[in-house]
Structure formats: structure tokens, C-alpha cells
Amino acid sequence: MKYYKYLFLLVFIGCSSSKIVYDYDSQANFSSYKTFNFFEDAGKGLNELDVKRVTNELTTSLEAKGMRLAENPDIYINILSSERPSINRNTIGLGIGSGGRNVGFGISGGIPIESRKINQQLTVDFVESKNNQLIWQGVANSEIKEKTSPEERRIYYQKLIKKMVSNYPPK
To answer: Where would I find the DUF4136 domain in this sequence (predicted)?
Structure first.
């Protein structure tokens, strides 16, 4: 039963589509960047718990690519987020109709189905530490339900960051 709960969460999170856009400095030598760290104020627009989730996922993803967290890094990472509420106003229509001998009768109505979601734009910037120049940027636009559990948020950010960092370093 425990595994069904996680399977449901994965299917639930998997249904929300994320649009991810990348950009990078074509002159940068990405093979020379071996270490990273985060700006002190990284996570503007996120709450403290979400900052932890995002930085943990970024650390895990970058370490899997052979990079390591360091005090004097080659690149610094900045995280920005902007959120705005979005109300999805779908309705279910009901109707009754009759017709015959050129006489018609009809009634219809709608039952509103309201689900509150948050549109989130998450931006991850990689900045070269030597000259403070932006070398890579990933921007994710996605929707998340307003009321999510901590586990759902962890899975959401895990999936989002993996997808975002999959294009780093650029080929």
C-alpha cells in the first residue's frame, strides 16, 4: 500500500507539464568548471524549505555530473522564483433536452470545478566566479497545486531540477 501512494504521487506530479528553456555563453569553456557553490541570497521568491529542496537537488544533480561543492568555486549558482496564482475554471455541463414535431425544449447548466494552482517561474543562473559573468541559465515555467504536501513538493522539485540540469554542460 505504501508503494501505491508513491506511485500515485509520481503520476500526479508527472501530469503537470513544465516548459524549460536554456541559454548559455557560447564562448565559455564549460569543461574548466569543476566546483560550485550558491550565492548567499540564492532562493529569492522561495520559502526557506523550498530553497533547501532546490539546493539539495541541484547539489545532487551536479555531483552526479562530476562537479563538487567548494568554498572557492569556479561557478556560483543563483536561484530566483516568481509565483502568481492561477485559477483553472473548468465546468461540467448538464443538459436535458427534448424535441419532436418541431417543438424543442432544453435546459443546461454548469457546475464549476475550481482547482487553485500556482504558476511558478524558476530561474537557475550559473555565474563564473572570476569575472562575475553569467555563463548558463535555465528557466522553468510550470504549475503546482496550491495545497501540496512536503513530499509532493520534494518530488516536484526533484523532477524539475533533473530536467533542467540535464542540459548542463551544453554540448
So the answer is: 21-170
Please tell me the total count of domains within the chain.
1
Q: What's the pLDDT score for residue 11? A: 40
For residue 124, give its domain range. Answer: 2-87+117-165
Q: Is residue 96 part of a domain?
A: no
For the whole model, what pTM was predicted?
0.72
**93 domain residue, yes or no:** no
pLDDT of 144: 82
CATH number at residue 26: 3.30.160.670
User: What DSSP string describes the chain?
Assistant: -HHHHHHHHHHHHHTS-EEEEEEE-TT--GGG--EEEE-TTTTBTS-HHHHHHHHHHHHHHHHHTT-EE-SS-SEEEEEEEEEEEEEEEEEEEEEEEEEETTEEEEEEEEEEEEEEEEEEEEEEEEEETTT--EEEEEEEEEEEESS--HHHHHHHHHHHHHHHHTT-S--
Tell whether omega for the bond before 150 is within 30 degrees of 0, i.e. cis.
no
- Give pLDDT tens digits for 138-168: 999 988 887 888 999 999 999 999 999 998 8
pLDDT(107) > 70: no
Asked whether residue 110 is domain-assigned, the answer is no
